[in-house]
């Protein structure tokens, strides 16, 4: 198959990847990835918020050597982008997280392996490249710390703790579909074979499984203990309030990820990019070195440029690589990330920025 082609046609932008994935995925799996919680106001609001953002470009600047290269958590990246954690990727392709990690390595960006990965972290880090581990706080503290040690031993470069999921939001698409994991897909880090996530029921079996597994009692003292328990760089994901971001920075977080979980938790939560300026300001005022990333609704290079202009060090992308994986496996993810790299460089240059750092000097305008 020629580069960029999938069974659904040639991918020219990230939206094409979603359309190509829709052509091959079962409807319930497509809904599992695409859906948000409740009326999906926050899911849809993330993209609408980016659509309202316009950047004021600068002119008469030498951009002949324009480059999107940057750093995240002190490591060089081809563009200021990381692949966000997405659960159960073997639902989308037999190779699952292995294929996505290989594509991220080839693209020169970090890949985040999820607690609910369908491939063990050791197999993901064996691929090479920069791998971050996303952590949910489990009901059994010992099991949570065991996951931290496991990520460290596997060679992960950072730990990303997700703090906005005391339980899974009411994802109505999954509930209406009675969504359950097929027999060949499991949470590789949680042990055993079949679980409640595999048992068809009235509602979402995956939601029932996470309610049994995740702790709703996590507090700032747990985050402080986690910071003390690992020497890995620590990202705190799921922050929207500036006060929470400043407190996380004060407790030693190396980065906060401004996120409403792709619109999959509190329906009606503020779009992540709308919360970004306040978080960036609060973290900057804290006087503590801490990067600010954002996810949710990033669908192209212009969105990355806008996020940089609003104070982000970089962005995470989740659904677009997942759609690429479904459409054409590793090649599909590589195509998505290569497209995004081209778009980021294009946006930088056309805005008069030869380097990523210059994008943070741009002004933005919000339109109704």
Topology overview:
Elements (H helix, E strand, L loop, with lengths): L4 E2 L2 E2 L3 H9 L4 H8 L6 H12 E4 L13 E3 L2 E3 L3 E3 L13 H11 L3 E3 L7 H5 L5 E5 L5 H14 L3 E5 L9 H6 L27 H9 L6 H10 L4 E6 L2 H9 L4 E4 L13 H15 L4 E5 L5 H9 L4 E4 L1 H32 L5 H4 L3 E4 L2
Parallel strand pairs: 6-13, 7-8, 8-9, 9-10, 10-11, 11-12, 12-13
Antiparallel strand pairs: 1-2, 3-14, 4-5
Helix pairs in contact: 1-13, 4-13, 10-11, 12-13
Question: What would you say this structure looks like, in words?
Answer:
The longest helix is centred in the last third of the chain and has 32 residues, at 319-350. With 368 residues, the protein is α/β, with parallel strands linked by helices. It has helices at residues 14-22, 27-34, 41-52, 97-107, 121-125, 141-154, 172-177, 205-213, 220-229, 242-250, 272-286, 301-309, 319-350, 356-359, and strands spanning 5-6, 9-10, 53-56, 70-72, 75-77, 81-83, 111-113, 131-135, 158-162, 234-239, 255-258, 291-295, 314-317, 363-366. The N and C termini lie far apart (43 Å). Helix 4 (97-107) runs parallel beside helix 13 (319-350), helix 10 packs across helix 11 (272-286) and helix 12 crosses helix 13. Helices cover 42% and strands 14% of the residues. The strands form four sheets. Strands 6-13-12-11-10-9-8-7 form an eight-stranded parallel sheet. It is built from 14 helices and 14 strands. It has a single domain (5-366), classed as Alpha-Beta Barrel (TIM Barrel), CATH 3.20.20.70.
């Amino acid at each position: 198959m020629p580069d960029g082609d999938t069974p659904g046609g040639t991918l020219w932008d990230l939206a094409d990847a979603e359309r190509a994935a829709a052509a091959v995925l079962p409807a319930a799996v497509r809904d599992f990835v695409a859906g948000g919680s409740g009326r999906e106001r926050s899911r849809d609001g993330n993209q609408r918020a980016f659509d309202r953002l316009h950047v004021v470009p600068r002119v008469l600047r030498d951009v002949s050597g324009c480059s999107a290269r940057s750093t995240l958590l002190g490591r060089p990246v081809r563009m200021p982008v990381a692949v966000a954690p997405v659960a159960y990727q073997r639902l989308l392709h037999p190779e699952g997280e292995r294929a996505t990690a290989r594509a991220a390595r080839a693209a020169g960006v970090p890949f985040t392996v999820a607690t609910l990965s369908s491939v063990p972290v050791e197999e993901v880090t064996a691929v090479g490249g920069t791998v971050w581990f996303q952590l949910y706080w489990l009901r059994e503290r010992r099991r949570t710390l065991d996951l931290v040690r496991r990520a460290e031993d596997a060679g992960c470069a950072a730990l990303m703790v997700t703090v906005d999921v005391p339980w899974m939001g009411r994802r109505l698409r999954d509930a209406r579909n009675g969504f359950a994991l097929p027999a060949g897909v499991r949470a590789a880090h949680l042990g055993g074979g079949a679980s409640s996530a595999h048992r068809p029921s009235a509602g979402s079996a995956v939601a029932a499984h996470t309610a049994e597994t995740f702790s709703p009692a996590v507090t700032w003292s747990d985050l402080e203990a986690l910071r003390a328990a690992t020497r890995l760089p620590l990202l705190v994901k799921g922050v929207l309030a500036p006060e929470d971001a400043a407190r996380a920075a004060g407790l030693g977080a190396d980065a906060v990820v401004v996120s409403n979980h792709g619109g999959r938790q509190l329906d009606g939560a503020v779009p992540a990019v709308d919360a970004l300026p306040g978080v960036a300001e609060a973290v900057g005022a804290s006087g503590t070195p801490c990067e600010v990333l954002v996810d949710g609704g990033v669908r192209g290079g212009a969105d990355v440029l806008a996020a940089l202009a609003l104070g982000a060090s970089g962005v995470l992308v989740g659904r677009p690589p997942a759609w690429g994986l479904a459409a054409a496996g590793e090649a599909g993810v590589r195509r998505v990330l290569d497209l995004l790299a081209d778009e980021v460089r294009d946006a930088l240059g056309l805005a008069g920025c030869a380097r990523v750092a210059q994008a943070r000097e741009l002004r933005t305008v919000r339109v109704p």
